[in-house]
Every structure is written in C-alpha cells, then in structure tokens.
Design a protein that fits this description.
The chain is mostly helical. The chain starts with a strand and ends in a 14-residue tail after the last helix. The protein is elongated and about 90 Å long. Strand 1 and strand 2 form a beta hairpin. The longest helix has 20 residues. Strands 3-4-7 form a three-stranded antiparallel beta sheet. The protein is built from 17 helices and seven strands. This is Tyrosine-type recombinase/integrase.
Length: 372
C-alpha cells in the first residue's frame, strides 16, 4: 500500500505478509477505512507502544496533573512492557485479562492496577475513535474480585504452601511425566524455586556466575519478564540484588546443571527443552500445570505458590524474621511476618523461656513486703 502524506508530501508505503488472499483483502479494507477516516496508515498498523506515543496527548486531555503522573507511570511500567509489542488491532479482552492477572500476581497494589488499566482504556478509546478497532478491549470487568482473592491469600500465604518435601518431589515428578518428552528440567525448576523461595522469572534469570559453590549461595540479580518484542531480563522486583542459601537438597541439582551448561559465566542455569527462557506461563503450558495440580489435590496451587512454600518452610525452620526478609527481598517487614505461625507449642515454649529467664526471683505466693 502506498500513499502521499498530506503534510510532508512524501510518498510513503506500508506492507504486510498474510497467509491467505482473504486476510490480504481484509487488511487492505482496514487500511482504506483508516485512510478515509483521516488516520495515518502507519498508526493504524503500529504496535500499542508506538500508537500510544502518537496519541497520548489526545488520550490524556482533561486530566489533572495529580492524576496524569500515576497514569503515565502505569503506562510506562506496566502497560508497555506487557502489551506494548502487540498491534493495536490485535489486542483482545483476553490479552488485557492476562495482563491484569499478571499485575495481580506481581503483587501490584489496587490503585496501581486501576491507574494502569485506566490509561490503557483511554488509549484504546482513541483507537476506537480513529476507526482502528470497533470496540474497546480494555474495558474488562471482574479484576477487582480477582485482586481481592489474591489479597486474601496474601493475608495467609502459609495456607498456599505445600505440606512437605515429599509433596514437592511428587509434584515435580508428576509435572515432568505430563510434559512433552518428559523433560526433567521442569522438575528442576520447580524444586529449585521452592527451596530458594524464588519467583519463576528469577529462576529463569540465574546465570552460572550467580552461583557460589564455595558458600552455596545464590546472588539473585535479575528476572525474566515479558517486554516489547518478547522476553527480556531486568532487575529483580525490589530493584536490588539479594543472597539466598542453597540447601543440601538442591546442591546436587545445581551441580548437575553447572556441569551440563559448561564454564560460560553468562550461561543460563535453567532453560526450556529447546534452550529458551522460562516464564510462569511457559511452565504452566509445558507441564499442563492446572491439570496436574488438580489431580494431586492442590487445585488452587499456582507457580508463585512455590515461593510461598519456600518462605513458609524457612519460617517453620526457625529462620529469624529479619533474615527471612532479606532472603525474600520484601520491602516491608509486615509482609514477611505473615509467614510466621506461632503454634501452641511455640507459645508455651515462650512462657517456659521467660520463666527460666526470671529464675527464682519470683515469689510462689505473690509479692511480699520487705522489712526495713
């Protein structure tokens, strides 16, 4: 398709390959419709991030400064990395639903999700006005209920943890058995994530140079996340590196992976069967996760719950809360404290410890006046 830009008077062109003549005819018709409506054909076929840059001034008109700043932050930090690479006309309700679900899983606040969704709605509404799409796919509903459910779970993250090491091993083996070609690497990812209380994206980001086999400590420096054009590595959620111990039960697993990937310090420790990067969605689809956990009786168990499992086990093992916070990378101590669960035995032990500390200073029959 070729046309003359009415402003610059330059002759421009746009081409696209499609699978069928019908798809080609539909594309030409869409471009002609956009041109008749005065829409730049390049804008009509551009990715969301590019289109947003072109129309942002129109999309945010009428907003006050105090509202504009969080809207633009949501666009830059969440909308563009999640959906920015998709053509505007290919963004569906389902794509927006998955984006919002991902923000909830990343523990974004309710206001953060609301602001990110609001600016997406405004940009997509401009696309409706431009005739690029017929309806606004960003007007999704029900995410508040999903957010509330996730928030309720985070109030008691211990309830999301697997009950034992045997349960973890059983889950890993079942996922491997259900995957194509029974790829053992899926089981390694699951066990490693639980034993280090790490996010799946952080497991995907592990490089050889991040592992210190002298002290058996992993320095968490990066995570794999969706970005414009595909997956990319970026800093951890807390924007700072942290150190995590590698317990004996995963040291043999890590040693085997180090031997398999060789001496390249930048080699990934964990990859998919074809060497690709791993995300929570990749792990879910490759292992038929939902089917497997339902069959094992953990129907509500998600990939992120491997992290809850590790933190719960560490808390039960007596790891001090300030140390657990550093391992988890939590910004708030109150978040870490949710993993502590003082049972009746620990409460009575606390009483015994206080009694031993006071020793014989207390009087069995109450206080007495001392003669002077």
């Amino acid at each position: 398709m070729r046309w003359i830009d009415p402003v610059s008077k330059r002759r421009l062109s746009k081409s696209e390959s499609v699978a069928t003549p019908e798809a080609a005819a539909a594309w030409i018709e869409a471009m002609e419709k956009a041109a008749r409506g005065g829409v730049d054909p390049l804008a009509a076929t551009s990715a969301l991030s590019e289109y947003g840059d072109r129309v942002m001034e129109l999309a945010v008109r009428g907003l006050e400064a105090k509202t504009l700043d969080p809207y633009l932050a949501g666009w830059r930090k969440r909308v563009v990395p999640t959906l920015g690479h998709l053509p505007v006309r290919l963004i569906t309700n389902g794509a927006v639903d998955r984006a919002v679900h991902g923000w909830i899983a990343d523990e974004c606040s309710r206001s953060t999700i609301k602001n990110s969704l609001a600016i997406l709605v405004r940009v997509m509404e401009q696309a409706v006005r431009d005739g690029i799409i017929d309806r606004n796919p960003a007007r999704v509903t029900g995410w508040q209920r999903e957010f509330q459910r996730a928030e309720d779970e985070l109030d008691d993250p211990r309830s999301l943890a697997l009950p034992s090491w045997q349960a973890l091993v059983g889950l890993a083996e079942a996922l491997v058995a259900r995957s194509a070609d029974q790829f053992a690497g899926w089981g390694d990812v699951v066990v490693f994530a639980a034993c280090t209380a790490a996010r799946i994206g952080e497991v995907s980001g592990v490089r050889v140079r991040d592992i210190d086999t002298d002290t058996w400590v992993w320095t968490v420096r990066r995570q794999t996340t969706p970005s414009p054009g595909g997956l990319a590595d970026k800093g951890t959620k807390g924007k700072r590196a942290r150190k995590v111990p590698l317990i004996g039960k995963v040291q043999d697993l890590v040693s085997a992976r180090l031997t398999a990937v060789g001496s390249d310090p930048d080699a990934r420790l964990f990859t998919g069967p074809r060497g690709g990067r791993i995300t929570t969605a990749v792990l879910r689809d490759a292992t038929h996760w939902d089917e497997v956990v339902t069959r094992l009786g953990y129907e509500h168990f998600r990939r992120h719950d491997l992290r809850h499992t590790g933190l719960t086990w560490m808390a039960d093992a007596g790891v001090p809360v300030h140390v657990l916070r550093k391992i988890a990378g939590h910004g708030s101590l109150s978040t870490t404290q949710r993993y502590l669960h003082p049972d009746l035995r620990s409460i009575t032990d606390a009483g015994d410890a206080l009694s031993a500390h006071l020793g014989d200073e207390r009087s069995p029959s109450g206080p007495h006046l001392r003669a002077v």
